[in-house]
What does this fold into?
Amino acid sequence: MQKKWSTKLIHSDVKVPEGFRSLNTPVYRASTVLFPSAASVSDEWDQYEFGYTYGLYGTPTVMELAARICELEEGYRTLITPGGQSAISLINLALLRAGDHILVPHSIYAPNRLFASRMLRHFGVEVTFYDPNLGSRIDSLLKENTRLVWCESPGSVTMEVQDVPAICEAAHRAGALVVLDNTWAAGVLFDAFAHGVDITMQALTKYVGGHSDLLLGSVTARDKAVFDRLGMGQHLVGMAVSPDEASLALRGLKTMAVRLKAIEASALDLARWLATRPEVELVLHPVLEACPGHEFWKRDFSGSAGVFSIVLRREFSKEKVLSFVDSLELFEIGYSWAGVTSLAVAYDFQGNKDRPHYGHRIVRLNIGLEDVEDLRQDLAQALATMQ
Ligand SMILES: Cc1ncc(COP(=O)(O)O)c(C=O)c1O
It folds into this structure.
């Protein structure tokens, strides 16, 4: 067919050499996916079953990332979401309905708690918050209509390591599924499915991305029945993921082992040193005995990450704690964690009767890839300003 130049802009006849092989997964950008014939058109979401149908359900770049996360977590299949928080909301939206009951630990990531108390209650789901240290005693909170038990281990900021196998056993006896936020363990330092968990989610924003420049999440299911409910849910709420973000996460995965190893060593070194400092009352790092649930970390984890908290001594006012954080020169102040830059954020649990009594004295540290002696010196000079 003879084509005008404007048509050629859209329907070109050029050919480039074939056979190019890159080490990296190509970035496939697409909403429209082409079908070979009119009769083959379908808009099924499950592309493993039906082939590619629409960009919303995943391009090969996003599917590659999903399969890589699933391979590491050893689940049935994984969905990729636009962020960790959307992974949380997808699980709840896909699996719950009015009249159901869920259990959520006090120590869970704050927006997860808020999703339960604001959105789920609004939709008629009954929510009970529980002490993360309950272990098997959680059975007294399980009801006939309990569908989901959330866990996050260690918990956000207060770092309680949970007895996940005991919680799974109790939940399964009551017919409930267990969901774990496995972000701290990067999906690799805690083998969730081997310990009884049914669904995991991660903020890939953290260790998988690893460079503080992307937002992504993952949801991995133990079996097909749960995966199908989650996949249908993702399709209906329309949680699309950019292949560019997925490509960055695929790159992040390649260096995650070495980053985790270096970060683990520096974080442990600094945590142990901070525990000897007179200004510090408590170091909440799962590897240290003083951390609630340390025995479960020892029993169940194969390593530790670079995020932990310190509780400063009782005599320090809120102003002193904030000035300690402000005095840090290498540690930047900002949310999110697991990037290459060390971060510090002060929290204030005053007035929150369900969290441990650390008041305004708790500071969460994210250890990055700077030289550990420089980080120690920075912490030492900032602690010295408190005296
Ligand atoms: C434990 C945990 N889960 C989930 C999230 C949410 O991830 P995102 O920021 O990608 O929405 C975060 C973010 O800080 C987190 O710390």
Observations:
- Residues 83-85, 109, 152, 156, 181, 183, 203, 205, 215, 217, 336 surround pyridoxal-5'-phosphate (CB under 6 Å).
- The chain is about 35% helix and 15% strand.
- The CA atoms of residues 31 and 55 lie 4 Å apart.
- The radius of gyration is 23 Å.
